């Protein structure tokens, strides 16, 4: 039996003493595309951050390709995941610099040949080649989201975590993103979205319920 890409068992998370979700269990098989839905405050973004080790669970376990996420394993397990935020943060400079910088790090140097894929990915996502020389401060929201997605894809991570990563895209650009990700059959995707078309791209929809507020002690 194939090891799940992501396996979450009875996960409970609190932020500022407030329960975000409790007893959450979820499994994503390798290559599965799953979308998280739910009201604001239901814990969708917190779950993505927990998978990356940025939010410490109160209880429960997270396993990435069968290995438990802990303070000791988090750095290695992050190398299996790439994350794209709704409003991606980018260092100052040109788009070309943003895309090339990750490959200056020791862990990514062996993937430097992937930079040759940039022109093709720009074309697939309906971005002009000359955008590489554009300053990141001059990018629109939709352009930033697509550049961040390209940066993530160039790293060849097996798991892609997307937090409303298509929210600033027009219909044509959104369909281009969906078509590109659909072609990555081996890519496991856990996304957050309120977009019905995006949900249609997914194999599975998981609704997170807003937790009940705890009565003061």
Task: Based on Cα principal axes, name the global outline.
Answer: globular
Mean pLDDT: 92
- The class by helix and strand makeup works out as alpha/beta
| Structure summary, number of beta strands | 9
Name the beta content range. Answer: 15-25%
| Low-confidence runs | none
- DSSP helix count? 7
Largest sheet entry: 5 strands, parallel
Notes on the protein architecture:
Helices cover 27% and strands 24% of the residues. The chain has helices spanning 44-51, 74-78, 95-100, 118-124, 141-154, 171-183, 196-201; strands spanning 6-15, 18-28, 33-37, 59-64, 67-68, 81-84, 159-163, 188-192, 204-207. It is an alpha/beta fold. A five-stranded parallel sheet has the order 6-7-8-3-9, with helices on both faces.
Keywords:
217 residues; alpha/beta; 5-stranded parallel beta sheet; 7 helices
Topology:
Layout: E1 6-15, E2 18-28, E3 33-37, H1 44-51, E4 59-64, E5 67-68, H2 74-78, E6 81-84, H3 95-100, H4 118-124, H5 141-154, E7 159-163, H6 171-183, E8 188-192, H7 196-201, E9 204-207
Parallel strand pairs: 3-8, 3-9, 6-7, 7-8
Antiparallel strand pairs: 1-2, 1-4, 4-5
Task: Write a brief caption for the model.
The protein has 217 residues and is of the alpha/beta class. The chain is built from seven helices and nine strands, in the order βββαββαβαααβαβαβ.
């Amino acid at each position: 039996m194939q090891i799940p890409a992501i396996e979450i068992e009875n996960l409970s998370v609190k932020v500022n003493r407030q329960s975000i979700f409790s007893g959450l269990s979820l499994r994503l098989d390798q290559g599965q595309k799953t979308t998280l839905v739910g009201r604001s405050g239901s814990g969708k973004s917190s779950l993505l951050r927990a998978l990356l080790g940025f939010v410490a669970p109160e209880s429960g376990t997270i396993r990435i390709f069968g290995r438990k996420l802990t303070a000791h394993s988090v750095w290695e397990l992050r190398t299996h995941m790439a994350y794209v935020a709704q409003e991606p943060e980018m260092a100052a400079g040109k788009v070309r610099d943003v895309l090339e910088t990750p490959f200056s790090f020791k862990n990514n140097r062996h993937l430097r040949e992937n930079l040759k894929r940039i022109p093709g990915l720009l074309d697939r996502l309906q971005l002009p080649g000359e955008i590489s020389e554009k300053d990141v401060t001059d990018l629109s929201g939709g352009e930033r989201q697509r550049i961040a997605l390209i940066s993530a894809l160039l790293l060849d991570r097996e798991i892609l975590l997307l937090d409303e990563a298509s929210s600033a895209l027009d219909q044509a650009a959104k369909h281009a993103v969906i078509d590109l990700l659909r072609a990555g059959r081996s890519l496991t995707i856990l996304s957050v979205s309120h977009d019905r078309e995006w949900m249609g791209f997914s194999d599975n929809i998981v609704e997170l319920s807003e937790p009940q507020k705890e009565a003061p002690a």
